[in-house]
Specification:
- Helix 2 runs parallel beside helix 4.
- This protein starts with a strand and ends with a helix.
- The strands form four sheets. Strands 3-2-1-4-5-6-11 form a seven-stranded parallel beta sheet, with helices on both faces. Strands 7-10 form a two-stranded parallel sheet.
- By secondary structure, the protein is of the alpha/beta class.
- The chain contains ten helices and 13 strands.
- It binds nicotinamide-adenine-dinucleotide.
- Nicotinamide-adenine-dinucleotide binds next to helix 1, helix 4, strand 5 and strand 7.
Length: 313
């Protein structure tokens, strides 16, 4: 395989695992990233990897990279992704997530076969408690979701105009090594690494669909390679299983082989937390045969063995 792929946001949590997968399969990869949350250490030294430091708002630089590389696929993963950061500075989130997406699409226009955009399972109506399919109602309650929904609209417009094929991948909760944002699992692991076995968290009831980050990379890779009957497709990428915060902490306790107590403290509680968020993944399975190969326990074990223990040594 001698594909050429640009991964925008490729130095981040999910992007860096996608880089690994393309390189393992003999592809040539260009990472375009401003390293705001991404990390150069996540990327290997490899003859088939080129790294360009740049911002997605810099359409001129992005265009020149696309002109040089002439990629088959462009993955657009760059975003302000941490919900509290989006709420704190909505103007910045709107600029990066919406204007930035338009800038990526302008640079790609009529030059690439396919653009794959990382959206989120968080845009589905939080009142729905059953498994969410791509046709489920959409209702976003925060700035992050609004920016992703607008991004989806821009991607759809791009495909409808015939500028390239386009795929929206609605990702659920990624778990694994190289997490960059202070989500729930880093908050748990940080307390465990600090020696606490009585950990403090926010709401304990919400259930989420956690998916191993390497399975997300595998799904994105499959979406990049699938044959498409229509210029536009939308796919959930989750595990199809959900866990409450309590169940998650029980798995962490199994991994570290110690008893762990949890307490919900008011300062960590979100005012609003959707009760659950479960992906129906039958569409991606039908269209490209993808299904998750790993589980949550395995992801937690890898974080503990390969990242947390290194800090403890
Ligand atoms: N991690 C998850 O659970 C999850 C769930 C749903 C959707 N997503 C989406 O998947 C994508 C990747 O998420 P992630 O968890 O890897 O986040 P991340 O923050 O680790 O990755 C984002 C990458 O984009 C880069 N970036 C940010 N702003 C940029 C800019 N203006 N110009 C150039 N590069 C920029 C960052 O440096 C980073 O390397 C995001 O779009 C996110 O919204 C992630």
């Amino acid at each position: 395989m001698n594909s050429k792929t640009i991964i925008i946001g490729g130095a981040g949590f999910i992007g860096s695992h996608l880089v690994d997968l393309y390189l393992e399969n003999g592809g040539r990869v260009w990472v375009y990233d401003n390293f705001s949350t991404g990390n150069r250490d996540f990327l290997p030294e490899h003859p088939n990897l080129n790294i360009v430091e740049g911002d997605i708002l810099d359409t001129e630089l992005l265009t020149s990279v696309i002109d040089d590389c002439k990629p088959d696929n462009v993955f657009h993963l760059a975003a302000i992704h941490f919900i509290p950061a989006c709420e704190k500075d909505p103007a910045h989130a709107i600029r990066i997530n919406i204007e930035g997406t338009q800038s990526v699409l302008s640079a790609c226009k009529n030059k690439v076969d396919r653009v794959i955009f990382a959206s989120t399972g968080a845009i589905y109506d939080p009142e729905i408690t059953t498994a969410l399919s791509e046709d489920s109602n959409i209702s976003t309650k925060d700035i992050y979701g609004l920016t992703k929904l607008t991004g989806e609209g821009l991607i759809e417009y791009h495909a409808r105009k015939g500028f390239s094929q386009a795929i929206v991948a609605r990702l659920f909760n990624a778990v694994g090594r190289r997490e960059t944002n202070p989500h729930l699992i880093p908050a748990i692991m940080e307390q465990l690494v600090n020696g606490s076995r009585h950990i403090q968290l926010g709401n304990l009831y919400p259930k989420r669909d956690y998916i191993h980050v390497e399975d997300i990379a595998g799904a994105l890779y499959s979406l990049g390679n699938m044959s498409m009957e229509h210029p536009m497709g939308t796919f959930n990428v989750g595990s199809g299983k959900e866990y409450s915060v309590g169940e998650l902490v029980e798995l962490c306790a199994e991994v570290i082989k110690e008893y762990v107590k949890i307490e919900s403290v008011p300062e960590r509680r979100r005012k609003y937390d959707r009760p659950n968020q479960l992906a129906d993944i039958s569409h991606i399975h039908e269209k490209c045969g993808w299904q998750p190969k790993r589980n949550l326990r395995q992801a937690l074990d890898e974080i503990w063995q390969k990242e947390c223990k290194a800090i403890l040594l």
